[in-house]
Amino acid sequence: AEARARDAESRAAAGLREAQQSLAERTQRVEALEAERERVRAEAARARQEVDARAAAAEARAADLERRLARVAEERNASESRALDSLRAAQGRFQEELTRREAARAAELERLRGVVQERARRERLLEIEVQRLRGSNVAVIASPPAATNVDG
After folding, report:
1. 64, 67, 152 from 57: Cα distances, Å
2. What's the CA gap between 66 and 33, in Å, rounded?
3. The pTM is what?
4. Has residue 131 got a pLDDT over 80?
5. Where do the H-state alpha helices sit in the chain?
6. Per-residue pLDDT tens digits for 82-110
7. SS3 144
């Protein structure tokens, strides 16, 4: 009976050692898993911060590009407006010059018509004078009448 008791005690002691060893191994595994979980959480938090920082930087770049784009569009519109104003002014000057030239041409045409009419009138007077002189067949030594002045 004593041998059985020692044997049982020795088995119990061996079982206790096994249980303690198994408990120690499980405790170590639990601690390792907890440490790994904590490392993964820290890494995930770091990754989230990095992603947030990159997103904020991308948003800042996008806002800057949007401002630049708006400024370029505004400058383009202003430039186009200036170009249109300049074109309108040039067209206005051209139209004024064209109107002035047309008026000058019209005035010159009117002046030339007057000159032609005056010369035609003088020619008729001279023809009448020639017919009168031919009709009388008399040589006149007197000075010609003032109406026959051809200087023009």
Report:
1. 10, 15, 90
2. 48
3. 0.44
4. yes
5. 2-136
6. 999 999 999 999 999 999 999 999 999 99
7. coil
